[in-house]
Amino acid sequence: MQHPAYGELRPVTSYASVLLADNPNPMTLDGTNTWVLRDPDSRECVVIDPGPDDAVHLSRVAGHGPVSLVLLTHHHEDHTAGVADFVQRTGAPVRALDPTLCHDAEPITDGEPIDAAGLQLRVLATAGHTADSVCFVAEHDEPAVFTGDSILGRGTTVVAHPDGHLGSYLDSLRKIASLPPGVRALPGHGPELDDARAAAEHYLDHRRQRLAQVRQALGDLGPGATPRQVVELVYADVDPAVWPAADLTVQAQLTYLEDREDLRRGDIG
Fold first, then answer.
1. Molecular function terms in GO for this entry (predicted)?
2. pTM over 0.85, yes/no
């Protein structure tokens, strides 16, 4: 059973399986990946990102309980809109970086170890896609990192101004790129990737290229260019359906360049 597979729990590692929400669109790719984690000897499980407010999906996820803990990678509704319903179904506590998303539990902190369902996870704060984005690193003999939207299984993620911040995102990509080789990336959208480090390095290269293209567009259009004018040049090969998100990404890029007084330089370091 390969990605995408709707309606069925798909095993990915000995301890992690994914249930794909049926909410595909240009921003969510095939839909939101809800991850169900448990050591093979554990009766309980951990759920990462219950997903949208979809009763059928949430019922399917809850059916793989009992759920001892819910973890959230960030606040976007395609990952969290179903949380209240899911808590009613399972009674599980909810933890996230943002205290307002927590239920009967404390917020998580960067570097914190989490022991649940016979597994050891480590919180890796990865601000950038959103201010509250985190990844969860599974300390296991099959190492993996649950990347939320910080790294996707296909394409690249949006850094939408003002909640998205490009400088923070580049720092977060460097964190992921510092993981050992061979740590799998288990993302919030799209198929799993064999090497999170390689994916992060690819993302960094992509951002370098985009920043160079934005600088070139500003040179062609003039410093008073609007984000949409830049989008029409730099993202001409991208589906126009996602241009509104590209507008916000370009604004994040422009803000990054302005903050660094970097309009005449070619590096992102």
1. hydrolase activity
2. yes
Q: Pick the catalytic residue: 30, 49, 78, 149?
A: 78
CB 71 within 8 A of CB 47: yes
Between β-strands 184-187 and 10-11, what pairing exists: parallel, antiparallel or unpaired? unpaired
Give yes or no: 78 in active site.
Answer: yes
Buried b vs exposed e over 197-220: b needs ≥16 C-beta within 10 Å? bebbebbbeebeebbeebbebbee
